[in-house]
Amino acid sequence: MEFVLISLVSFVMYPSINKYIYSKLNDKNDIEKITEEGLYHVTSEEAVKSIIDSGFFKPSNIITSYGNRKVFFFAGIPKFKEAMLNGIKDIEEQKLIAVKIKPTKEQLQGFKVRKYDDGAIAHIGKLYIEQIDTSIAYLILDINEKGELYFKETTKEEYYNHKPSKIVEQEINIKNFISAYKYQYKLSLYGSIN
């Protein structure tokens, strides 16, 4: 009975615990992807302007950082699932704005990867951008030939002129419904998710 209870608790708590676990960024594929595609810090337009003007990323608060204050990034353009798992609200508008940095392998020494399936790369504390190749990235949500939602980088002009697509909106609603259904199902089974 004790083993079953421990297994059940482990199963329920596993996703939550992984939000707290970070390890060194030493996976060759991750490092290669980051040096080729860059790191994307998705945020608001005001925050993008503030980061560019001030020359540094301000870390999030202790609660959202799960301990030490951190700056969070995606390795490469974020996948739709990663954006959903991180609770990015602008998905409904079908576009995101981000600060994109292209650190060197040496500059990646201060970064860590979160052992959760949301694709988060973290830097503890403030991150100054004066020595890092930095730009603003404009991302639009689209749907590919397989019916999968994905973000693509676009021009500033296309970003500001972008009109939400009904097809993409329907797909987002379907994905949100499925996520909500899974959440309700887990809630009915376990009484609590977190």
Describe what this molecule looks like in 3D.
This protein has 194 residues and is of the alpha+beta class. The protein has one domain: ADP-ribosylation fold (Alpha-Beta Barrel), CATH 3.20.170. It has seven helices and ten strands. It has helices at 2-18, 28-37, 45-54, 62-65, 80-85, 156-161, 166-190, and strands spanning 22-24, 39-43, 56-57, 70-75, 95-102, 111-114, 120-124, 127-128, 133-143, 149-154. An eight-stranded antiparallel beta sheet has the order 1-6-7-4-2-5-9-10. β9 (133-143) and β10 form a beta hairpin. The relative contact order is 0.16.
Could you estimate the helical fraction of the residues in percent? 40-55%
Return residue spans where pLDDT drops below 50 for at least 5 consecutive residues: 1-19
The portion of residues forming beta strands comes to 25-35%
> CATH first level: which class?
Alpha Beta
CATH architecture field: Alpha-Beta Barrel
